[in-house]
Design goal:
This protein has 2 domains: 3-256, Glutamine Phosphoribosylpyrophosphate, subunit 1, domain 1 (4-Layer Sandwich), CATH 3.60.20; 273-460, Rossmann fold. It is globular. It contains 17 helices and 25 strands. It is an alpha+beta fold. The strands form 7 sheets. Strands 4-3-5-2-11-10-12 form a 7-stranded antiparallel beta sheet.
C-alpha cells in the first residue's frame, strides 16, 4: 500500500513542538501521564513523538525511550508503554521548523556523557545555531541529528563538567544561546524546565498530588488531571528533585517577546499563556475586526478550528448571527491512501465540507486566522459560493504575513507569502471574495489585554533578536 503525507498543507502555518515532563515524588510510574499530556499537545506537532523515562530509585542513568514518526496514537502501543517504567520522564511532539523530518531528529534526545545521562525535549529555534555547532565540531563533537536541540544538549553536557549541578549547567548554556527555547530536561534524579529570556513560547508548571509537571500549555495539565501552579518566567530555570521545586531567576529580564501567533493560532483555545486566555484573545480579535472592518451580512462563520472563536467575537460585536458552516473531518491523520490520478480530491475538501443550510442565499462573513499563500482560502471561498452564499466577506484575525519567522514557526520567506507581493485588493481578487480585511497590527496589543511584550516580526519585520544573515531553518545535512 502506497502511503503519502497528504495532510500537510503548504498554505497553512504549522506548529512548532510540544514538550511535557513529569516527576512523581511518590515513585509512581509516569508514562501514562506523559502519553495523555502529549495527546493534548498533538496540535503543536504531528510529524513525530517520543517518551523517555527513568526510575530515580533504580540504577543511575538507566533511561528507557520510545520514539517514532507519526501521531501519538500511531507511535505508542499499549505493549510499548508497559515497558517504559519510571517515576520521572519527558515527552515531545514535533513539527520540523529546523532540521529535516526523519527518525534521527525525533525527540526527546537522550545523551550519555561522563556525568551521566540527559534526556532533552525542545520547542523553538535558536538563531545562533551555526556558531554554536561549529564551536562543538572544532573540538571533536560528532552530531547524530540535524536539529539545534542536539546543539543545546551538547552545550549543557559540556557546561556540566565545570558546574556543580545540572541546573547550573543549563543556566550557563543559556548564556550562549540566542533565540527561542522552551526546554524540559531529565537527569537521573531531576526534572528541569527552562524558558528563553524573551519568553517566545509558553512553558507552565502543574501539580497533581505529589507529582510535578512542566509542559508547553495549560491544556496539557488539564489532560493529566493536574492543577496549574504558574508559568515558568522568561529566563527562568526550574528544577524539581526529591525535595520539591527550586528556581533560578538570575537570567530573567524586563523585556519579553512572546509569540503573538500563539494566541492567534498555535495554542489550544483552552490554554492560558502568561495569564492571558487564548480563547479570550481570539474572541477579542473578532471583536476588533468587527469594530474596524464592519460589513452588512446575514451570518458570520469561522474556518475551523482557530477561526471559530474569532468568528464568535465578530458576531457578538456586530450583532450578526453566528453560524457553524463547516463540518471538519477529525480523522485526517498524518497519512492516508494516495488516490489514483482520476480520483484526486482537494485536501481542503477532505478536511472541510460546507453546510448549504447555513449559507445558501446569505451574505457570509468568513473569519480565518491567517492567509499564507492564499490557495486554501480561495478554495474555501469557492466552496461557500458553490453552496449558495450570495456574498463572501473574508476577515482575517491577524495582520498580513510579510516576513519569515526564525523562532520556531514555519512562516516562509517573503516570496512565498501572498501579502509580500500583492496588495489587499489583489489578494481579494485572487480569493474571489467580495471584500477582504485583516486585523490591524496596531490592535494586536488590544487583543491580549494591552500587553506590549510580544513578537510581531512576521508582520512588521521588527525582530526582537537580530535575525541570522542566512535562513538557518533546515540547513544541515548528515
Amino acid at each position: 500500500m502506497l502511503m503519502e503525507n497528504n495532510s500537510y498543507d503548504p498554505d497553512e502555518l504549522h506548529e512548532e513542538c510540544g514538550v511535557f515532563g513529569v516527576y512523581d515524588l511518590d515513585g509512581n510510574d509516569v508514562v501514562s501521564t506523559i502519553y495523555y499530556g502529549l495527546f493534548a499537545l498533538q496540535h503543536r506537532g504531528q510529524e513525530s513523538c517520543g517518551i523517555a523515562v527513568s526510575d530515580t530509585g533504580g540504577p543511575k542513568g538507566k533511561v528507557k525511550a520510545c520514539k517514532g514518526m507519526g501521531l501519538v496514537s500511531e507511535v505508542f502501543t499499549p505493549e510499548q508503554l508497559e515497558t517504559l517504567n519510571g517515576n520521572i520522564g519527558v515527552g515531545h511532539v514535533r513539527y520540523s521548523t529546523a532540521g529535516e523530518s526523519s527518525i534521527n531528529n525525533t525527540q526527546p534526545l537522550v545523551l550519555n556523557y561522563v556525568k551521566g545521562t540527559l534526556a532533552l525535549a525542545h520547542n523553538g529555534n535558536l538563531v545562533n545555531t551555526p556558531m554554536l555547532r561549529r564551536e562543538l565540531e572544532y573540538t571533536g563533537a560528532i552530531f547524530q541529528t540535524t536539529i539545534d536541540s542536539e546543539v543545546i544538549a551538547y552545550h549543557i553536557a559540556r557546561e556540566r563538567l565545570n558546574s556543580a549541578s545540572v541546573e547550573e549547567a543549563v543556566a550557563r548554556a543559556m548564556k550562549k544561546m540566542s533565540g527561542a527555547y522552551s526546554l524540559v530536561i531529565m537527569s537521573p534524579r531531576k526534572l528541569i524546565g527552562a524558558r528563553d529570556p524573551l519568553g517566545f513560547h509558553p512553558l507552565v508548571i502543574g501539580k497533581r498530588g505529589n507529582a510535578y509537571i512542566i509542559a508547553s500549555e495549560t491544556a496539557a495539565l488539564s489532560a493529566a488531571d493536574a492543577e496549574f501552579v504558574r508559568d515558568v518566567l522568561p529566563g527562568e530555570v526550574v528544577m524539581i528533585d526529591g525535595d520539591g521545586i527550586h528556581s533560578d531567576t538570575s537570567l530573567c529580564g524586563s523585556r519579553t517577546a512572546k509569540c503573538i501567533f500563539e494566541y492567534i493560532y498555535f495554542a489550544r483555545p483552552d490554554t492560558r499563556f502568561d495569564g492571558t486566555s487564548v480563547y479570550g484573545a481570539r474572541i477579542m480579535a473578532g471583536r476588533i475586526l468587527a469594530q474596524s472592518n464592519p460589513v452588512e451580512a446575514d451570518v458570520v462563520v469561522g474556518v475551523p478550528d482557530s477561526g471559530n472563536a474569532a468568528a464568535l467575537g465578530y458576531a457578538l460585536e456586530s450583532q450578526i448571527p453566528f453560524g457553524m458552516a463547516f463540518v471538519k473531518n477529525s480523522y485526517v491523520g498524518r497519512t492516508f491512501i494516495k488516490p489514483k490520478q482520476s480520483m484526486r480530491v482537494s485536501s481542503v475538501r477532505i478536511k472541510l465540507n460546507v453546510l448549504p443550510e447555513v449559507v445558501a442565499g446569505k451574505r457570509v462573513v468568513m473569519i480565518d486566522d491567517s492567509i499564507v499563500r492564499g490557495t486554501t482560502s480561495a478554495k474555501i471561498v469557492k466552496m461557500l459560493k458553490k453552496a449558495g452564499a450570495t456574498e463572501v466577506h473574508v476577515r482575517i484575525s491577524s495582520p498580513p504575513f510579510l516576513y519569515p519567522c526564525y523562532f520556531g514557526t514555519d512562516v516562509p520567506n517573503g516570496d512565498q507569502l501572498i501579502a509580500h507581493n500583492h496588495t489587499v485588493e489583489e489578494i481579494r481578487e485572487k480569493l474571489g471574495a467580495d471584500s477582504l480585511a485583516y486585523l490591524e497590527v496596531e490592535r494586536l496589543s488590544d487583543m491580549i489585554g494591552g500587553d506590549k511584550g510580544y513578537c510581531d516580526a512576521c508582520f512588521t519585520g521588527k525582530y526582537p533578536i537580530e535575525p541570522p544573515e542566512e535562513d538557518i531553518r533546515g540547513e544541515y545535512e548528515l
